[in-house]
Amino acid sequence: MNWSAPHVGGQVLLTAQNLSAQSLSPAALSALSGVRTQSLPSAGLTVAYTPAGQTDAEFAATLAASGLAAQPNYRYQALSAPNDPGYPINAGISVGGALYDQDYLTRINAQGGWDKLEALGKTPVGALTAVLDTGVDTAHEDLAGRLLPGRDFCSSLVTDAQGNTNCSGEDSDPSDLTQGSEAGHGTSSAGLIGAATNNGKGIAALTWSGKTILPVKVFGASGANSGATTASLTAGVKYAVAQGAKVINMSLGLVGASTDPALSKAVADAAAADVLLIAAAGNTPNQGLYYPASDPNVMAIGALAKTDALACYSARPAAGQKGLDLVAPGGNAGSGTPNCYQSSEYDILTLATTAQGRYTLRAGTSEAAPQVSGAAALLRALRPDLKVKQIRGILTATAETVTGGRLLNVGAAVQAASAYGGGIVPVPFVPYSLRVDAFLGDALAGTATTTGKDAPPIQSVTYRIKNLVAGTYTLKATLTVDNVISSGEATVTISGGDAVRNIQTR
């Protein structure tokens, strides 16, 4: 665990919710003796408050030694790149004095997708899409008829005497934040996916009509501060799955931690339930992909600037991380200038809250991710029979290769999805081969090899090495996908018999 990453101070999260004497070992009972705890049923977690005189990391280590899985309650941030010295969204920003259009829709070939749907006798409706964010302005004129009731998993952001902030409470009102630096962020994300379209007002969105946008508020505000936590995000993901969401958009992220076990479990469960998860990659170019974009079960979306190069603020993968799955326009936001975070006339035209003037310009990977989510929602509504892996494969295989990565092409994706399995424009399955060697010290103790074909992106391949004796092994893997070679290794200790371990390649 990275305890230097942003997290709620004075507490740790326990993945166990049942802390009864019957369910805990004597060592665990001893470790929790006198400790204040709070159950979080929606997230399936428990907060344990750090005793005085201990750091959170020390307390977590004590709990772990007793057999309890403990982790930080990480604090997440929304990912719009700042457009001015304070933050990108400003209640006084006006677009009324100049005319701006949605040039990003042209760059991702949205019209081509809509035209193909019309030719098929269908309208551009989307599958149920959850927007995990700061909430949504439910009274916005350009979201009329688009929003489901939703839920709020961070009713307030409580600041303690040490200045730590933590989400508290939940309710049925997912209205967007009215204070804090990220106010309006969720309304923007929801608008890019599902602003009411062809209604003579405001902007067009990838999906045009129907109550298919589920607002899930995971951020709270305390004065100028706003934020989300592991607990609120985990609850939000679980809620979205329970409500039948087929796509989850997360324009947010955590820098400084390669994973978040509680959220990772919820994400993995969502993926197993055939939900497509999409996240903004991050808004700093030299700190790697933020989490959850770096999770293999999540599509990581980078941002292009005015050209087809990555925007100066867009996250790049760090060594050992997976690559960006797709890129989409995120606004120029200072690209090509000394200040990467200054506003630009080439930023993304999107929604603001009614109090903020209803429409504004924003920039960041937060604006790129909802474009992919909107496209994914179109595909999932068009072809509800296709699974997440097939939808991901279609989106990536039909993307246009540009300087900054694989640029979303909505028209090509809709065309491929409509013909998938029909022999007209099938998504190509790519060949792969895997070799895994198990070394016990310097001795080769076993090898597994396997070959096959699968739809891109290939995230994992199953293998088995039998008859390994007890010991600590170094597993070295080489994966070749369509003549591209990746390699990696992991250390695993087994007590005998077969072992199962995922190896992340790079």
UniProtKB/TrEMBL annotation:
SUPFAM superfamilies: Subtilisin-like. Keywords: Hydrolase, Protease, Serine protease. The keyword Glycoprotein does not apply. One of its GO terms (biological process) is proteolysis. InterPro entries: Peptidase_S8/S53_dom, Peptidase_S8/S53_dom_sf, Peptidase_S8_Asp-AS, Peptidase_S8_Ser-AS, Peptidase_S8_subtilisin-like, Peptidase_S8_subtilisin-rel. Residues 129-405 form the Peptidase S8/S53 domain. Pfam families: Peptidase_S8. GO terms for molecular function: serine-type endopeptidase activity. Coiled coil: none annotated. PROSITE patterns: SUBTILASE, SUBTILASE_ASP, SUBTILASE_SER. Residues 164-189 are annotated as: Disordered. The keyword Protease applies. The active site is at residues 133, 185, 366. Belongs to the peptidase S8 family. This is S8 family serine peptidase. It comes from Deinococcus detaillensis.
